[in-house]
Amino acid sequence: MYKMIVIDDEDIERECLASLIPWKDYGIEVADTAWNGIEGLEKIRALKPEIVITDIKMPVMSGIELIRKAKAEFPQIVFAVLSGYGEYEYTSQAMELGVRHYLLKPCKEEQIIKMAQKVRAELDEMRELEESRRREQSRLRRLKPRAQAQLFADMLEGREDGSLDYRAFLEEHGEKYPQIFLLVMKFPKIPDYLESFSLTNILAELMGEDHILLSTSVEQEAVYLLDDRIRGDMEPVAERVRKEYFKLFSIDLKPVISESGEIPAVSSLYRGIRAEGESTDPDVRALGAADTWEQVFFEVRLFLLKMKLGQMPLERQKDRVYEVLSEVFRSPADREDTESVRDEKSLFEYLSETLCREKKIKEPEDKDARRVYGILREFYRNIGDPELSLQKLSREVMFMNEDYLGRLFYRQMKKRYSAYTVENRIRIAARLLRQIPDVRISQVAEECGYPADGQCFSRMFKKLIGQTPSEYKSGE
Predict the structure, then answer these.
(1) What is the model's pLDDT at position 6?
(2) How far apart are CA 386 and CA 418, in angstroms?
(3) 41-50, 87-96, 391-400, 443-452: segment of lowest average pLDDT
């Protein structure tokens, strides 16, 4: 039952509203009435109703002023406004304050009942949402350390998608920490509880407990999910942790830091770290860790650009592709497969298709997802083309309406095409600047689809990375 207060300076109107309508039949109880805004505000403070019906024009304090003051203290109250002909200015002010329910004097009983039903439905929805939020918060509070460690272990192994705990964790942290990374401390043996506990305490003391979102142990590894804002300072911190830990236990740890990514990509980031133990070749690790067609496209484009910027001839690039594929899949690649490769674009297609086939990464079956797959394939295949707009793709490649294609892309990727392309051009550029010491910034800008003068590239790089390209390249 929801409590309601009726406020009107006209006695007949007020009493009719309060007593003639069978409010309880609609789940509403009239808690009290008031004849002006000041008295109404006092009773709102005392009774804390869920619903207030108020006249707009009243002596002493108007309905507009009452709504403004009451909402400042009780924003959850649902207001319904009584107004007469010609009071449009007041009605407009009420709308600006968020009022959605109106009754025009003189009020008919069926109009009042219809309004009551709408208000009740709105309150029911608000109560249901609040209850759902409380349940999820309660679930989060119940995630004790052991449960958190198990949740994180499931995330690392890619088993978290269907769990309520994982959805609650995403709701709590997904927007607060849009970018994360992993720190793995590798032990020479499986650590006991004291050894793992002490390591976490040392890490929390040196870098701050708030930056550790989750932690767990996996065989001979202690794994930490960390806030990406501290990633730039992580190498010296990890080295200091290693030294402090050695003083305590005479155990030499090996710290490994993952790439940055979003929380749903944790499993992929962890596979990339594990691949590091299997190969010293960063190209093998990166291509071996890619487990979706989008990641394959990204890593293949980065890999091919590194060879191109290193001025490697096409035949040597093909040899390098053989070497990497052989190591990724632990078996010799078939050189005859690249006989038809005549340029960089066909090498991109060969390597992408081979990786997806061998990893059993299938093209999406859904029609809309396949179209987005085609857009991304063209984007990464032609990343150096500054004119590769959605308009060009819709006209020359997809043969579809540009607006429809844009909505489709946003629905599938949760980002606009323009934002996605800028973000991933800059991500690839950042990796190239760090991995190729003597590369010129203008070269990287051009290969990623920006003018050689570097102004636009530098501006977008600073906006997304937080440093200019030269600062980032020098590691300042």
Answers:
(1) 93
(2) 12
(3) 87-96
